[in-house]
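Entry 14. Ran structure prediction on the chain below.
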Amino acid sequence: MKVRIIVSGVFLFYLVSLPVFPQTSLFDRQMQVGFEEKQGQYADLDVKLVNENGDTVLLRDVIDKPTILNLAYFQCPGTCSPLMWGISKFIDKVDLELGNDYKVITVSFDPRESFILGREKKASYLSAMTRKEEAAKNWSFFVSDSADIARLTSSVGFHFEPFNNQFIHPTGLIALAADGKIIRYLQGIEFLPFDIKITLVEAADGKIGPSINRLLAVCYSYDSKGNQFVFNITRVSAILITFFAILFFLFLTFRRIRLKSQGNK
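Output, structure tokens:
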């Protein structure tokens, strides 16, 4: 009996003294990824990127107009490829001119990937597009090193985690103004051309397209849960009420002036 007690005590002491190794589950890692929305803040424009020709450039030299930023990695087995197909679709369909009205840039957040792989990936998307020439010049693919990737992703609130030689990451696009200001996050893999247009109008501060686009930007607001623009009945109602109130006030004012002038006669 005493022997059993001694053996049990030694075994318990052994279990307690074992080092505790932290176990990070896939779920725990998933909880650490996502978009930290930073509207009104600025992307780090001093990060260095390597373009499809192997040239090193600064992000500030790439962004000179409203820009859709796509953070992905080229060998992603999950959502990155469908997301880039979604980009190719809205480029073909949106009634804005890529290159004149806006730009699209795709940056790999995997420092192991080469610019050659990026160039090959881009070619596969261009092959199925109708606006090939526009996209070839103004949808740019980049790679970078781990330090610059960390600076860029941190500045725009894109949080990802390595896992089993791949990455757990959010899926979506980030709209930037010409000065790098973060305007909007569009989450998902496919986007209505209308949503992209409204976002770019907002990014350009109403300078893109005819005046009707500015009205659309006023009448529609972004639903972050549904990841799309919805008709803002409250905003439109307030505008209409204010408009008719001003008209009614002007009507009463001019009517009073007219009645007074008739009474003086």
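The chain has ten helices and 13 strands. Will compare against last week's run tomorrow.
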